[in-house]
User: What shape does this take?
Amino acid sequence: MKRPELITIVGAGLVGSLLGVMLGKRGYRVQIFEHRPDMRGQHVAAGKSINLALAERGIHALKQAGLMEAVQPLLIPMRGRMLHDVDGRTEFQAYGQRPHEVIYSVSRSGLNELMLTAAEDSKRVEVLFEHELDSIDFDSNTIHLTDMKNSNPIAVTAELLIGADGAGSRVRRSLLPFVNGLDRSELLDHDYKELTIPPNAQGLHQIDRESLHIWPRGGYMLIALPNLDGSFTVTLFLQKQGTPSFAELDDRQSVQDFFSRQFPDAMELIPNLADEFFENPTGILGTVRCDPWIDQDCVMLIGDASHAIVPFHGQGMNAGFEDCELLVGLLDQFQDDWSSAMQEFNRSRPADAEAIADMALENYITMRDSVLDPRFGLKKKLGFQLELAYPAQFIPRYSMVMFHRIPYSQAKQRGVIQQGILDELTVGVDSIDQVDMLRAGQLVQQRLELLSDSKSG
Assistant: This one.
């Protein structure tokens, strides 16, 4: 494809707006259609992913876009997990062992608003809000929309169309039947509900500000992420049916009783628990897996539209931002030959998307269950020791995903090998002092190749 005169993006969320910024910086004219009203100055509805976790992959993409300095004031560092047991006792588990190995709580809307403004400030990007995609005519490269402000139908010729319209992507739902593609999207049998721990009377956080708080209860959990205003966004993850389940929490008393039994210390911090529980929507959780992500050189999917994942590894936004950075890198590599860049993106990126989707599902079990097991703590300590001793070979899988840009598929593969090493070294072992470190070194050297550059993708 020759350099397109105008690139059309459907979706002005996190990925669509960041991609708009990056393409605008390259001198492209970009038009973004978004079905929601402009969120700037609008009240953000409660209960729908108020804050997210920003990690190395997302940070790197924001730096490439020239936005990280502006984003910095929106961030709260989270240095590890603060585990809360049923009796209110807490235990802190650090995410990493170096000062920079933290993740950051960030306001979804604050970050989105900042990127929308940056995109428009480039003078190369136009964002049209309240424009809903109705259908796509692939034969004529025409998209049909409705201007929701006046209900007028609109037809737009899209020389290059990019679907960044999220897990429920209408672009994907139109594209895959047209190309006889595969959509293997799957819903989790657990849902989520967001609640709020407000700030104290002095406007400060009521629990540790620099932790991601988890109340792990085996088959379900409660988590809390800090906000800049002193509050925490609290999320209950629970199965839809069965015991316990959202189906059973059908009146105020059942909600109060459930929280008083399972999360008594959290309940004390949520003053309007029952009201908020029934006022806020119950969200669904799912994974999007599809193939292909492109049609020739005129349509492509990116971010959640092609590979939405469950939130338990904090990588949905980060993976989407990495998509943008990798796509722009391919445009550099192929000198803005979009056909070559899109084909290589469709060839190379899906394996990483599959890997992080799998790891996100696995991490749900880790967060709600494994973190309670003393052997999990033992293996975590051993993993840190091996990382210090063999930093170019052994990096804990969580660190590979969160603090490095090692391809997700490679992180998953190495993680399996490393877990085998940890399992083998801790058979019949109750403390780190009992581990045979000489044997540990031999296993690392035998089974793990050197990493050339742990930050590179």
